[in-house]
Structure formats: structure tokens, C-alpha cells
Amino acid sequence: xxxxxxxxxxxxxxxxxxxxxxxxxxxxxxxxxxxxxxxxxxxxxxxxxxxxxxxxxxxxxxxxxxxxxxxxxxxxxxxxxxxxxxxxxxxxxxxxxxxxxxxxxxxxxxxxxxxxxxxxxxxxxxxxxxxxxxxxxxxxxxxxxxxxxxxx
Length: 152
Ligand code: HEC
Fold this sequence. Notes:
By secondary structure, the protein is mainly alpha-helical. Helices cover 39% and strands 0% of the residues.
């Protein structure tokens, strides 16, 4: 009986270790190249999903783009005005420029208040649970790029 409990406990330890290693691997930032203020290539090597990107743009916990930008999302009553309207942004900026803006807008303007969504260092005040983590995953960034590219 005692052995059985120990075995279950050991299995639990192995599983939780397994999961935490996976999580660390997932948090590792993908390498990307910035050229002329743009990141030309998809961070994941694949195109994002614009429908998921739209949801992230609304989500207060993840993208939260609506907090600062007006966007063509009529079902949401509140749109911020801190940043420029994003309607038409895909006509003004290239996909690579939009990707660079979402990854780290400080590359274009060190004083901007827009947060860097794909960077895990250089933040001034970080809660312990967020330390070493980017705000969004590479595929979430790509979903947002895909959605933003529909704003012609
Ligand atoms: C805290 C406010 C804030 C949030 C949140 C925010 N932005 Fe911004 N964004 C700005 C500001 C301010 C600018 C203007 C650029 C500057 O400050 O230099 C900007 C600029 C941009 C631009 C360039 C627009 C142009 O016309 O040049 C894009 C694209 C953009 N943001 C996309 C996003 C997306 C996508 C999200 C959500 C993932 C987001 N932003 C979240 C404040 C914000």
C-alpha cells in the first residue's frame, strides 16, 4: 500500500517536471531578424490566423490592442484613443513593419507607451510570475499580424 502511494507520488513528480521543462521550452523566444525597422519573416515560419488575431486584439488579458487603438470591431463599445486608429494601417505599413511594431515598438520609438509583446527582458517592473516571459507567444503575434493585415 505504502509503495503504491510512493509510486503515484513519484509519477506525479516526473509528470510535473516533464511539464515544467515543456513550459520553459515554449517560453524561449524565437530568433528573428530586424532589417530597416521590419521583421520580414513570420516568427513561427507560418502565417497566422486573422480570426484568432481579432479575438486577441479584443482580449483584455492578452493583446488588448483596443485599449489604445480604434479598430473596426463594432461589437465592442470601448476603443482607446491613445494610439493611432488602426483602420487602414495595412495600407500605410508593410507586414514586416507591423510585425516589428507588435514584437517591440520601442525599436521604432524608444519613448512609445505601446508595450512590447514579444520581448522578455528590459522591463522595469515585472511581477515575479511574469519574469522571463513574453506577453504573447510567437503564434499569437502572428495571429495579430494576420488580423492587422486585414485592416486595409
Ligand atoms: C498602451 C497603449 C497601446 C496598446 C495596448 C497597443 N498599442 Fe499599438 N500603438 C500605441 C501608440 C501610442 C502608437 C503610436 C506609435 C508610437 O507611440 O510611436 C501605436 C502604434 C501602433 C501601430 C502603428 C500604427 C501606425 O499607423 O503607424 C500598430 C500597427 C499598432 N500600434 C498595433 C497594435 C496592436 C496590434 C496592439 C495589440 C497587440 C497594440 N498596438 C497595442 C499604443 C498602444
